[in-house]
Specification:
mainly alpha
Length: about 130
């Protein structure tokens, strides 16, 4: 029964962390991804998808490699900070990134999503 309880707690906590990450990520971007995605604009969807997948990998690795719930939360929060930092640095590297994504530049969206995914993969590996 304890294993099932741990499963449910980690599952719900992980999903809540991904939702929190999505909310924070969308707050730091200077445009509304969901509004653009609802309009069928692909570039911000690619960027957001890469960030969500990258962060989810970090959360999954944190669940796998931490013995305590508190450490799982702490390392997941560290992963969240790294994903946000990656977006901020990418914005400096590509100064017009928000404009490119809003204008549906699919290449920019794919690049931003890939950078976020790579950061998530490396971050997840660092937790193992």
């Amino acid at each position: 029964m304890e294993a099932f309880y741990n499963y449910v707690v980690h599952l719900l906590s992980g999903l809540l962390m991904v939702l929190a990450f999505a909310a924070i990520y969308q707050r730091i971007t200077p445009f509304c991804e969901m509004s653009l995605i609802r309009q069928g604009i692909v570039a911000p969807a690619l960027s957001l998808a890469g960030a969500l997948i990258g962060f989810s990998l970090t959360v999954a690795s944190s669940i796998l490699h931490n013995d305590t719930y508190l450490m799982f939360l702490a390392w997941s929060a560290a992963g969240l900070a790294m994903q946000v930092l990656a977006y901020v640095l990418l914005g400096r590297l590509v100064p017009r990134l928000p404009d490119l994504l809003s204008a549906n530049n699919v290449a920019a969206g794919a690049f931003a999503g890939t950078v976020a995914l790579v950061v998530g993969i490396i971050n997840a590996a660092c937790m193992s």
